[in-house]
Amino acid sequence: MKINNKIKNLISNQKGAALVIAMMVMLVATLIGIYSINMSSIDTKIAGNERMLSTTFFASDGGIEHFKSLIGPMLVNANQGNLATSATIDWDFLLDGSSGKPAATTSNPEVLWIDRDMGGGRRYQVYVRNNNDGGGVTDDTDGFIWVRSVGTENNRGTTELEVLLYANVDGAGAITGYSAQEGAGTGKNYNSTDVNEIATTDLGTNQFSGVSVK
Q1: Among 12, 22, 57, 181, which one is most buried in terms of CB atoms within 10 A?
Q2: Distance between CA 25 and CA 2 in Å, rounded?
Q3: How many domains does the chain divide into?
Q4: What is the pTM of this model?
């Protein structure tokens, strides 16, 4: 009788141990499943952020290139006097309100020059401001200017590129020692001492400040 009771107790204990082991296996399997789901969700978010970063980066980069192509002819037109006298080319026309944009102020030194909707929730905005050259917010004295392009997607992802822009003019012979009218008498003409005409502008960047993603 005692032997039978011992056997029954042993069997009962084994059933209890099997139940505990089964519950532990189920718990481990559940934790693995939750971990896998979380990892999959994280991977999806990372892929989405990488795609958004790429999209907004190229949008902001496109804004810089758009701005450079837009203001090239304007730079020459606004600096005719400087070109004729070999003075430093300046970017005042971007800052002083003379080109139809709001003028820069001490409280708001940046001027919005381009605001383009690219469709699909993508947009870039290009701002300009004078660098710290001692000339004030509307008076460029050294030929350098900051340009900041902000690319966005659905008002969630943002990439900013900021460059320090400078300008060179091809055809230095046409703007150095200009004296086409000097001493010409009755035979005055506009090109007697022009070695090369001002054909193109060369806009370059010498600083890339970085990328920020929000």
Answers
A1: 57
A2: 35
A3: 1
A4: 0.63
